[in-house]
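sorry for the late reply, my laptop died twice this morning and i had to redo everyting from scratch. anyway the thing you sent over, i finally got around to it. pasting the sequence first so we're on the same page, its 244 residues, then the predicted structure underneath. double check i copied it right bc i was rushing
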Amino acid sequence: MTPDSMTEIWVYLSAQPLLWLTLTLAIYLLAVFLHRKSGGHPAVNPVLISVSILVALLLATGTPYQRYFDGAQFVHFLLGPTTVALAVPLHAQLKRLLAMSGPLIVALVVGSLVAGLSAYAIGAWLGASAPTLASLAPKSVTTPIAMGIAERLGGLASLTAVFVILTGIFGAIFATGILRCLGVKDEASVGFAMGLASHGIGTARAFQLSEQTGAFAALAMGINGLFTALTLPWLLPLLAPLLR
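ok and here's the structure:
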């Protein structure tokens, strides 16, 4: 088989939507295997490995992102149902949730505002453009909601998706160590902090620690998405002149 024929075969296959969905799932399964082989080390993060391999593959083959997304968009569609399904383990923690409702509300408001406004302020200080700042502000919210918020603020949804993934990966790798250094050991508190700051990827990591940690991370991810969607689009334009 000649190189030209190989190229022709790849051009044909790359245009088929099923190829990119299959590759995405296969690469993620490989990343999960490597994560388990490492003993669950947070640095061997399945999302980080998957994204790195897929980006390298797209660059190496010259495949436009839109063509990839057209094939793998079913995975994106499942983000919504998966987020809703996280309510199942949360229901088992209902008693403790009600007992901690006051501190959790305070943590939600403070954490959500700090996450969005600090990102905007730091980006403005570094000289980022207005669309970049609008894309950066919802970085701690789960991807579907963050992309919607960014578009409403005048940002770029695709750029927001990148910021969201990077934030989630950073939280999944470093959050437990940082919280341990700060003396935060309670499972519910650790989970809520991870879900609030690093959304779905942090929540996946939290479930690896314990069911309670994962349940509170899922709670934080969900209500932070709702709270940010309701407050950031009207609050950020008011505070933007002060944060620049």
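The chain has two domains: 3-77, 84-243.
thats about all i looked at so far, will dig more tmrw
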